[in-house]
Structure formats: C-alpha cells, structure tokens
Amino acid sequence: RAPNVMEALEDGQELAETQSVERLVHSRRQDGGIQYLVLWEGRRKEEASWVNEADVTATAREAYLNPKPPFRVVADCVSDFIAGLQRSLKSGVNLNCTFTIEFRTDVYRFLFEDKGHCAHNKEGRLYSLDDFCKEYFCGEWYRCYDSLG
Length: 149
Known about the structure:
Distance between the termini: 42 Å
Mean pLDDT: 79
Low-confidence stretches: 1-16
Strand content: 15-25%
C-alpha cells in the first residue's frame, strides 16, 4: 500500500481536497505527456482516474516503476494464477488456444518485468520455467494431471 498523497485534476478543475493514493495501476501517453491511472484509497476500482504525471508524487511514480508489493498480495495473486492455469488445462485448452488470467499490474511487473520473450506473430509474451520466481512458485505448481495421473 502506498501512503502517497497527491493533488488530482479532474476535467481541468483542481479538487478541493487531497486524496490518498492506494497505487498507480497503469500509464499512458496523452497530449504529449504521461498520465497515470490512480486507484484511490478507499474507493472502488471503477472510480480510478487518469492523472497527469506532474500531479503525481515522485514516491508514487517510484512505487509504480519499481513495485515491491507485500508478500501476502503476491502470494494471493500467484495462487489465483495457478488455479486459473490449472482450470484452463483441465478444461482442455490446447497449445493452439489462447487464454487470459487477470493479474494485478504491480504484482505482474514485480514478478515478470524483463522476463520472457515476445511471441512470434502473436500478442503477449512467452515464459519459461526459469522466469517464475521460486519464492512464490513453489514445488511442481506447473504440473496438471488428468484422471489417470
């Protein structure tokens, strides 16, 4: 959780109050500058808003660019990832199919930034077993067995 505070701009109007930032979840280029999608403390995800880079603290940007999410958050995301992967494999997904598993942006960047390689003629990245951090991906998490073992 980032304890960062910043002034936010909404439709060109400065908000009267300062809002606490939970975390930055995405960035984009807009009107010649960078904007960050801010998830606000105590607010629903649907209330996240785009904020100009100049209005985001250096601490919040650093947390976004070099994420260090709490162990419990990473462990929960990894558990969801493994369960989703195993569900997909058990349901008969084959090598020619694509499937998507949602992942928190900060956790994904923490675990997989600069890992894997681009898939040829396809969107996304391909990862090898060595790309998965042993601290979070323990044992034989990548194995899935059918009813015959």
